[in-house]
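Sample entry follows:

_____
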Amino acid sequence: IMDFSEGYVSNEHRELHRSATESADPLSVSPLQLSTKSTRSPKSPRSPKSPRSPKSPRSPKVQGKCSNLTPRNNRPSYFQNDGRPKKGGSGGKGTWGGLLDTDDSNVLDPNDPNYDSTEEYDHSNEKKPTTELEDYKKKAIVIVEEYFATDDVVATMNEVKELGKPEYGYYFVKKLVSMSMDRHDKEKEMAAILLSALYADIFDPSQVYKGFGKLVESADDLIVDIPDTVEVLALFIARAVVDDILPPAFLKKQMAHLPKDSKGVEVLKKTEKSYLAAPLHAEIIERCWGGSKNTTVDDVKAKINNFLKEYVVSGDKKEAFRCIKDLKVPFFHHEIVKRALIMAMERRQAEPPLLDLLKEAAEEGFINSSQMSKGFDRLIDTVDDLSLDIPNARGILQQLMSKAASEGWLCVSSLKSLSVEPERNTIEDSAAKNFKVKTQSIIKEYFLSGDILEVNSCLEQENSNNCAALNAIFVKKLITLAMDRKNREKEMASVLLSSLCFPSDDVVSGFVMLIESADDTALDNPVVVEDLAMFLARAVVDEVLAPQHLEEIGTQCLGPDSVGSKVLQMTKSLLKARLAGERILRCWGGGGSSKPGWAVEDVKDMIGKLLEEYESGGDIREACRCMKELGMPFFHHEVVKKALVTIIEKKNERLWGLLKECYESGLITMNQMVKGFQRVAESLDDLALDVPDAKTQFACYVERAKAKGWLDSSFCFNKQEQATENGTH
């Protein structure tokens, strides 16, 4: 600091300083305070290096400011620095302070005349939310570490609940998973169990969703420290989907927001293709890290049985639901349904509370609709065995199904049929085994000879009662053997299936059995989905099955990712394609051999000759046999059309008898009958040129066909659009 005595200040300045000092109020202004009027810094004592007293003259700049006549509180600041020493040394030009300054804080003084409240407000609020999140992060890490050490789910849930801040739940999810990823399988399994426990009870589902979203986004960073991030994180996401704490739609939604070359996209693709698309993926994923304390299926069944017995005695639904949740096997909830129903059938007094439990479990989402239906289906399959111990088990089960359906927690249409005649649905194991052995030899012989009549004869001997279960076994065996052979045998199998005229329900049962065993078949036949889809589409084209039967088969599929769902999806795609009928018919060469199939014109010519031969006195059985041998059931509307035109032209109703026989035997379906009548209706104007009363005759035959049930009552040949409604679309 410059000293006045050293000649740096003029006499005029000394005089000004003296007059200012004498006029100042000693109580309100101290010499030290005068030094800080030009700044907004806290008070600072003079440096001990200065030998001068507080009354020593100040610098000229300070003098000038002190002598200013502007009111004190309105004086502007000429300096932007805080007036403190630079780098611990003495003060800068026009400032006070030195090495021994004790006031080293940056806190603004509200008593400072130049104090600005907005500066302190803005500065203090910047760090508040960040501080909260940082505090939450520290506590979350401690909780996760303690959980891995103690394996106490309940205590950890209480700690998370006490921690509060539900809006930061996503971070806990992210931290729990990321910390377990770099540890052993035990910690990974513990993390998955804790997430299921926290879901909905402590953390909102949206926070769990967001937490996994953050994990996927940070996959590129995680892989730096955890090389197998893609595999482990993909498995965590798959486990979350299986445990019903993350919706399957998470995969597609997240993939849409990530860069295509990011590790997050790689994680999501691996989750979908390697884990969720695999057969029996739920059971595999649930046991990927050893499972919940390595619990076996028998252990789970025992636990289910115990808590159901306790519930019947206590009636405590909350405890029952807690037990269901603690099992952590959502894919096995059908066992709960099955055991609850058996208990209700065995102990009739327990029926009301057990049905009430299942109803509320369905409504609250503890047991989903697919698991509920599967539980009932399993009981339907074993109802005849139950009849040995429970009299009228079939009737009781029917009552339970009706009650559940009326209360709205069971979709009966998605269940297997519960026939009153047990012999139609079930057969003795010994009879089934013998039939399977004989069926295999019959089919192998057919593949060598191609003799359909011989197959029919053998089946009449082995299945004289036309048992539905045996028919279904034959369908399954026929297609299974054909899938393992060449196109010739596949074509022969389709031709035989359309020639046997099995009831459609039996064929449906056969395909359901095929789909249920598809996972095992896939081990030997990698293209089982494509083969089954083609056989199913061919059955629809051949009108062995109707399109609505596909939906019936679909109800037997376990889920959207099951083999059955993939088969149905591919079948529908094949049937929707342009010229699907002709293409599917020729998929394996046509005609039951490697030779190409008939051309359409050739088929029309053969149909014409067939009708002429029958009209002239031919045998009706021979005519039906010839139609079957054509192997083109989707083209039978041509038979209907040509027969009707001949009847109208020649007024000979012998062909009407042929149509009657074909319809009643199932050779010509209603769909083909409608198409045939529709085609005649479209050509009536041309036909009337040769037969004036053609329209009158046709109207008469339409009414007769409606009376016999060949046509729907809404069929109207005068309006093309109404007629079209009865065709296929």
Q: What stands out?
A: The chain has four domains: 130-286, 297-414, 428-585, 602-708. The CA atoms of residues 560 and 566 lie 8 Å apart. The chain has a mean pLDDT of 75. The first helix runs from residue 11 to 23.
